[in-house]
Amino acid sequence: MQQYDKFTFRGEHALRREWVYGGIMMLKSDTWIVQFVEIGGGYVKQNIPIKPNTVGQCTGLVDKNGTAIFEGDVLRFYDDRDPYCAIVWDESRLAFCTFEIERKLTCEIIPNRDDQYVNAYHDDCCLTGSEIKEDLVVAGNIYDNPELMEVAA
After folding, report:
1. What is the dihedral of CA 152, 56, 87, 60, to 10 degrees?
2. Which of 141, 137, 133 is nearest to 19 (CA)?
3. Tens-place pLDDT, residues 55-68
4. Fewer Cβ atoms within 10 Å of its own Cβ: the N or the C terminal residue of the chain?
5. Distance (Å, whole) CA 86 – CA 148
6. What are the sequence ranges of the domains in the chain?
7. Which residues pair with 19 in a beta bridge?
8. For residue range 120-140, what is the model confidence (pLDDT) as tens digits?
9. Separation between Cα atoms, residue 58 and residue 46, nearest integer Å
10. The pLDDT value given to residue 97
11. CA distances from 118 to 63, 76, 108, 143, 147 (A)
12. Positions in the chain short of pLDDT 50
């Protein structure tokens, strides 16, 4: 399984329906994923054009199955006990959060703290990295699977 860190970005290729991963470069209205490809014992930089509205950063966290979690992913509890939620960047908190559309509830992700810290210092809804790794799985993303974020009637 491919390993990604919090400095990895992804975006949908501008010309094909596929996801590409790497660094990010943005200039005015153009956006690229930057990759270094090994060729003949050396490395060559390749800039891959992507759709700017699909850019998502890796959270640095993995789900119950070991899948890297990116901004824009849709998560669910592995036992289907709660509705789906999306990973979003919350500018006011300067943190990745989960957003559960049905209850319009945003929960901050605290990646490197235990549950005692979260309960003592955060009044609102929070998820720890260990909770995500133990209980949540990536079900898709908001670009390929927008139906996952629809509110059930």
Report:
1. 150
2. 141
3. 999 988 888 899 99
4. C
5. 9
6. 9-53, 62-149
7. 12
8. 444 455 666 667 777 889 999
9. 20
10. 81
11. 19, 21, 10, 31, 32
12. 113-123, 152-153
Please state, in angstroms and rounded to a whole number, the distance separating the CA atoms of residues 18 and 85. 23
Q: What is the C-alpha to C-alpha distance for residues 152 and 93, in angstroms, rounded to an integer?
A: 28
pLDDT value of residue 67: 92
The pLDDT value recorded for residue 68 is: 92
> Would you identify the CATH topology of the domain 62-149?
SH3 type barrels. (2.30.30)
